[in-house]
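Q: How would the structure tokens look for this protein?
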Amino acid sequence: MVELQGIKTDIPLFSKRIEEMNINEEEEMKEKLIQLVEKDYLRTDIPHFKAGDTIGVYYKVKEGNKERVQLFEGVVIRVNGGGIAKTFTVRKVSSGIGVERIIPINSPMIDRIEVLKVGRVRRSKLYYLRGLSAKKARIKEIIK
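A: Here is the predicted structure in token form.
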């Protein structure tokens, strides 16, 4: 058990000198150190969602010296990455024009996220929705 900055871990951080390590061991050690640092910055208040779900993202907008919360509601068309770099793309149609936002999931500008509908899709990336119009772009909902 190793203690680093008050965090106890069973990672053998410095059991070998870097010169003695092979490439895989060195990469594994770097990855574990990055995960250890990232752990403090990951948000835990975000609900689980996937592509096809309809969500409402409440994000903070700064206008001049005022800050307010704005809702962006739409369908998740992709979830990308992992860890602190995880992002998701939300698509909505506003006044007949498709609008997409790529949002980092760990952004401090996100106030909260609500899952409004759970969709049933068979793809992880729903790029085909971009070419469909109103009724054809509908996603079947899972009713619980």
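The chain has a mean pLDDT of 85.

The longest helix spans residues 23-38.

Upvote if useful.
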